Structure formats: structure tokens, C-alpha cells
Amino acid sequence: xxxxxxxxxxxxxxxxxxxxxxxxxxxxxxxxxxxxxxxxxxxxxxxxxxxxxxxxxxxxxxxxxxxxxxxxxxxxxxxxxxxxxxxxxxxxxxxxxxxxxxxxxxxxxxxxxxxxxxxxxxxxxxxxxxxxxxxxxxxxxxxxxxxxxxxxxxxxxxxx
Length: 160
Description:
By secondary structure, the chain is α+β, with helices and mostly antiparallel strands. 16% of the residues lie in helices and 44% in strands. It has helices spanning 4-11, 56-64, 77-84; strands at 16-17, 19-25, 28-34, 37-41, 46-52, 66-71, 99-100, 108-109, 114-126, 129-141, 149-151, 154-156. It has one domain: Roll (Pnp Oxidase, Chain A).
């Protein structure tokens, strides 16, 4: 079997956009930085995210059956860092950040490139994570900024 550190090193060469996956259950809301996000199907409209099972966001998505995805723009590095931090797992990561809701009530981040509001239709536990497949209830492009990109443990920028 492959050493997890060897896999981690190899995966660092995969360039990804940066998203915040968020959920709300009653008055409790939370979110986390996620790079494991992709479109599954246009008809029906489906996408997937992969969330570590020990996280508060995973618990809220599992309990509520809904999640939101905000695709971050280049100028939102600080938001990505805040939602990625282990030291903020128990705090209100949304404090001071402008958010809005569409259909499900999941908080979506204003100023993002695009947002997706999803209803979980399938969850597949796999290793330390769960793959959540969501039916897209609503989607909206919010800006034309360049995307926030992550590669080899650092943020990168596209040039126009």
C-alpha cells in the first residue's frame, strides 16, 4: 500500500480552484475550504464535494441534507485561509463576511465567482471522507474576477 505522505506529495502537483463548502442546520452554520469539488452532470444538474468525516461542516451537511459551494476569486485568499484553519473549527468562520442564501438556507459568500446551492441526493463514505453528491437547486455567477488557484501548497494567480 502507498504511504499516505507519498500520496500527499504527489497530489500537491494537482492544480485546483478553491471553494468554500457551507451548511446550516437551524441556527448553526459552518463552512470549510475544499478543493475536492467537481461537476458530475448537467442533466440532471449534479455536483460533488468530498468532506473529511471529523469536521463540523460534514456533520451539518449530513444533518441538514443541504450544502452550498462558493467558488473563490483571487482576492479572497484570506477567506480561504480562515475556512481552512483547524484552529477555527469551533468558531464562527462567517463572522464579518457578507453572505446570502438562495434556496436551502446554506450561507453563500458574497463576492465569490459563482455559487451553488445543493440538496444532497447521495453520500458515499470512503476512507476518512464522505463524497456528497448534490442536486443543484440554484446557481449564480457573481463576478468576472480571476479564480483563486491552489498548487503545491500555495496560492497562484492567472494572468489576463
